[in-house]
Structure formats: structure tokens, C-alpha cells
UniProtKB/TrEMBL annotation:
Record lineage: Bacteria, Pseudomonadati, Bacteroidota, Flavobacteriia, Flavobacteriales
Name the UniProt record assigns to this protein: ATP-dependent Clp protease adaptor ClpS
Residues annotated as transmembrane: none
Signal sequence range: none
GO process terms (BP): protein catabolic process; proteolysis
UniProt organism field: Aquimarina algicola
Adaptor protein ClpS core domain span: 22-84
Length: 91
């Protein structure tokens, strides 16, 4: 195995270990800004300002990445968002 292949393999392993998954929150016509903000603060550990900014982005652009991390960390958070009536998915 050449040096270049070994370095590439190490880079690929590191990117897999870091877990670059995201929770995407989608806009809907049902939930209030207050509900979305409170849910993001509780579920994603956002500050109130972060949650408000995400809520505005979702409202005006249709979606927003609200949390990144490993799938293992994001799965229960996404489930809580869905249980709260929000539209979200892990990508």
C-alpha cells in the first residue's frame, strides 16, 4: 500500500468517525413560533436566540439544519421533535 493510499484511508476513517449527520427541520403551517423555539431549546439544547433564528430560517426558506452530530446522538433528538409535532429528518 502506497503512502497516498494510506493517508486517504486515514482521512476516510476520521470522517466516518466524526459522524456528519444533520437533523433538518421543515416548515409547516401548524406549529407556532413559540412552540418551535421551545422545542428546539429543550430538544437540541439551543439558546433561545439560536432557536429563534432557526425558526425564522425554517419559516422563510422552508427548512434548516438544527443539529449536527452522530446518528446515535441525533436519533432520539429527532424522535422528540417528531413527537412534538414538528417535521424533521436525519440526513
Amino acid at each position: 500500500m502506497g503512502t497516498q493510499e494510506k493517508v486517504l484511508e486515514e482521512v476516510l476513517e476520521k470522517s466516518v468517525d466524526q459522524g456528519n449527520n444533520e437533523i433538518i427541520l421543515y416548515n409547516d403551517d401548524v406549529n407556532t413560533f413559540d412552540h418551535v423555539i421551545e422545542t428546539l431549546v429543550y430538544t437540541c439544547e439551543h439558546t433561545p436566540l439560536q432557536a429563534e433564528q432557526c425558526a425564522l430560517l425554517v419559516h422563510y426558506t422552508g427548512k434548516c439544519t438544527v443539529k449536527t452530530g452522530t446518528y446515535k446522538d441525533l436519533e432520539p433528538r429527532c424522535s422528540k421533535l417528531l413527537q412534538a409535532g414538528l417535521s424533521a429528518e436525519i440526513v
